[in-house]
Automatic annotation (TrEMBL):
Residues 348-400 form the HAMP domain. The chain crosses the membrane at residues 21-40, 326-355. Residues 600-621 are annotated as: Disordered. It is a multi-pass membrane protein. This is Two-component system sensor histidine kinase YesM. Its main location: membrane. GO terms for molecular function: phosphorelay sensor kinase activity.
Length: 621
């Protein structure tokens, strides 16, 4: 938090040009980084998609080639059970006669060569009976006792006449030959296909013969090397540009049949993703293996049901993006340098008018108001310059007017001193006339004289713009008495003002012009029955007054002309201006009237003169 406060303080105290450069730099940097990141992600996604598709095609093609060869072996194995010669050779061999077995071996070996000898991928093939192993023993030797006691034989019987593929196994151990374990073989591990042969025979008479029930069914065993199974994958790995590519073939139990690392062949630890691959049969996914994200493409072999796969680290698949990353960094550096230069030039362009205004303000601070900034452009800065020039002109005018106003005030004070006796002379004269009227029993005249004298005395004694509402209403009451004496029986006046408002300060004589207008204009065509209602009340932070009459009213057109100034009303205009000067522009007067239905004047003033509402102020933060 302390670091953040320090940074905020530095930012607040930095010059505007520095702020502009930094903000532009950060904005451009943010945009470039976002675009670079988005471009990198899209490129990485496309590249991974291409690699995934390429690996998937390799797995699919290799599986198809392997399936074709293995299916060929299966097809040939399907012919053996109905081979008449093979049936006669197996049934005709005498287990107790070695010469008979040797003759049968030569003929069966030739028959096996006829079926499987042309295929170089087949390492060795045999037909085994409990008494003898028929086939070429040149590459490997399989004893009947060891085979018929091995898991290979059990798998063959479980196949019930179908060809069963068995994953890589050490044949010395699997065939029950512990003495051969320490011997060296061309291939220590083999892949085998076994099939129990249910031999049949059809004689010349069309009779169908099968092997005797007491006779154990012979078993076909075809052996392939793991190198042959994984040869296509090994060739792709050698030619591939991926440095850490690995491949493998796994059977349904998780036993590794082929692997790029020969040490892992025959392991029984299935990959964690094997179950998902068996369910999907074909596809690819990304998995984290030993803390490393790997891209794996896999496919199921139709002939064996085994899963073949190729996996590479994702980072290897995206290796070519390193150059793109480098180019992106260089592009970012160049763009940032260009952005700094542009930000600097732009800051000069933007701050130059502000600097001019700053210099002009310093000159104004020293008292020099006769300055003018050249106005260029119509943008916000141009408008600011024009507003400054206008403001400076107004300040200069106000200074001159204020100076002239003070001179006039001095002159007025001198005139007031010279004419100080005049109001007292008028007041004394009215008082004398009052006593003369009293002596001559002119009571109405005496009261008018007294009211006029008191009005004059109240007005001359109070030099302020405001006085208490109580004083204003008392003055208005005397004015109404004089006017009612002048217009006898023409109107009546009713006042309804809240008691709590009587001591508040109000503009002097702010109600009199409206009462006078009601009497002079509103009741001009009436002989009697005029009524004036004066009300005053507080409402929502302001004080409202109304002067309502039942006179002839004012037309809408005439009201509009009054508001626009086309028709002058000196009294009403004077009150409006004084209220707004004392309380602010949101206060003033409103006229509600229609012809023949009377007029209502609404007056809004504040609680205290000279303190305007916060709504009328504009503060610059």
């Amino acid at each position: 938090m302390r670091i953040m406060r320090k940074l905020a303080e530095l930012a607040a105290n930095a010059k505007f040009r520095i702020k502009l450069i930094v903000s532009y730099f950060l904005l451009v940097s943010f945009i470039i980084l976002i675009l670079g990141f988005a471009y990198y992600q899209i490129s990485a996604g496309n590249m991974l998609s291409n690699v995934r598709e390429s690996l998937g095609n390799v797995v699919l093609n290799n599986n198809q080639l392997l399936d074709e060869k293995l299916q060929n072996i299966r097809d040939k194995s399907e012919v053996l059970p109905i081979d008449n010669d093979l049936y006669q050779m197996i049934t005709g061999a005498d287990p107790a006669d070695n010469e008979s077995l040797m003759k049968a071996d030569r003929r069966i070996t030739q028959s096996l060569f006829k079926y499987f000898g042309g295929d170089e991928s087949i390492y060795a093939s045999f037909i085994l009976t409990p008494e003898y192993t028929f086939g070429n023993m040149y590459r490997m030797f399989v004893t009947p006792d060891g085979f018929f006691n091995s898991a290979l034989y059990r798998k063959a019987t479980m196949g019930q006449g179908d060809l069963v593929w068995l994953p890589t196994y050490p044949f010395a151990e699997s065939l029950g030959e512990p003495d051969m374990t320490n011997l060296s073989f061309e291939y220590s591990r083999l892949v085998s296909a076994v099939k129990e042969l249910n031999l049949t025979y059809i004689d010349d008479n069309g009779n169908f013969h099968t092997l005797p029930r007491a006779m154990k069914r012979p078993v076909l065993m075809v052996n392939l090397t793991p190198d042959y199974i994984g040869r296509l994958f090994a060739e792709y790995a050698r030619q591939s540009e991926f440095r850490n590519l690995s491949y493998g073939i796994v059977d349904g139990t998780g036993t590794i049949v082929v692997h790029s690392d020969e040490k892992r062949i025959a392991e029984r630890e299935p990959p964690s993703w094997l179950g998902e691959a068996i369910n999907r049969k074909q596809g690819s996914f990304q998995k984290v293996i030993d803390g490393r994200e790997m891209l794996i493409s896999f496919g199921s072999m139709e002939s064996t049901g085994w899963i073949s796969y190729i996996e590479i680290p994702v980072e290897d698949a995206l290796y070519d993006l390193k150059a793109l990353r480098l180019y992106s960094i260089l592009f970012l550096a160049v763009m940032l340098m260009v952005s700094i230069l542009l930000a600097y030039l732009m800051s000069i362009f933007i701050t130059k008018p502000i600097i001019r205004i700053k210099k002009a303000m310093k000159m104004m601070e020293r008292g020099n108001f006769h300055i003018h900034i050249p106005e260029k452009g119509r943008d916000e800065l141009g408008q600011l310059t024009r507003m400054f020039n206008t403001m400076n002109g107004r300040i200069q005018t106000l200074i001159e007017e204020n100076y002239a106003s003070r001179l006039r005030e001095k002159e007025a004070e001198l005139m007031a001193l010279n004419l100080q006796l005049n109001p007292h002379f008028l007041y004394n004269t009215l008082t004398t006339m009052y006593w003369i009227a009293v002596e001559n029993n002119q009571h109405e005249m005496s009261r008018i004289m007294l009211s006029l004298a008191e009005m004059l005395q109240t007005s001359t004694r109070n030099k302020n713009e405001t006085w208490p509402l109580r004083t204003d209403l008392d003055w208005l009451d005397k004015y109404i008495y004089i006017m009612s004496s002048r217009f006898e029986n023409l109107f009546s006046v009713r006042m309804d003002v809240e008691e709590g408002l009587l001591d508040m300060e109000v503009p002097k004589l702010f109600l009199q012009p409206f009462v006078e207008n009601a009497i002079i204009h509103g009741f001009a065509e009436m002989e009697h029955g005029g009524e004036i209602v004066i009300k005053g009340w507080a409402d929502d932070g302001m004080v409202l007054f109304s002067v309502q009459d039942n006179g002839s009213g004012i037309s809408r057109e005439h009201i509009d002309k009054l508001k626009s100034g086309q028709v002058r009303s000196t009294g009403m205009s004077n009150v409006e201006k004084r209220i707004q000067l004392l309380y602010g522009p949101r206060y003033g007067t409103e006229i509600y009237s229609s012809e023949g239905k009377g007029t209502s004047i609404r007056i809004r003033i504040g609680r205290q003169p000279g303190s305007q509402d916060t709504q009328d102020r504009t503060e610059i933060q």
